[in-house]
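Sequence only, no structure available. Ideas?
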Amino acid sequence: MTIQVEIVTPRRELFSGEVQMVTLPGIEGQMGVMGQHAPLLTTLDIGEIILHRSGEENDYIAVTGGVVEVRPDKVIILARSAERADEIDTARAEAAMRRAEESREHRPPEEQRPVELALRRSQVRLKVARRRRAHRPGIGPRDDE
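Reply:
I predicted one. C-alpha cells follow.
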C-alpha cells in the first residue's frame, strides 16, 4: 500500500509522488507514516525526511522544520526549507558548521539558542549529503536558509 506525499517550501514544490512510507523528524522524535495512518497534525523539527520507495533507492531530504498534515491517503509537508541529498553543497554545509561551532565558543549562554539551531541544521545537511546518490534529472535549485 502506498501513500501520496507532497513536500512544499515557500519557494517550491520539492516532491510530489507515492511512496511506501515516509519517515519524518517530528518535534517529539522520528515517526514513520504509511497508508491508512490516522489523521495527524504536528510540527516538524530540524532533521531528515526519508521517502521509502518500493524497489528503488530511498530519497533523503534535509528539512529545517515546518508542519505536517497526515491523512489516511496523503502526507502534506510544509517545510521552512528543504534540500534533497544531491542538492546539498557539502563544502558550504561544513563551513556553516565550523562558523556555528566557533560562534558557540564566544557567546554567552543566553545567546546560544540560535547558534545551536544553526549547528543542528548544518549537521543534518551533512548527514543527508553523505547519503547522496547519483544526480537525478529534473531537480530544481536548493532553498537557501
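Strands lie at 3-8, 13-19, 21-26, 29-33, 40-52, 59-70, 74-79, 82-84.
Hope that gets you unstuck.
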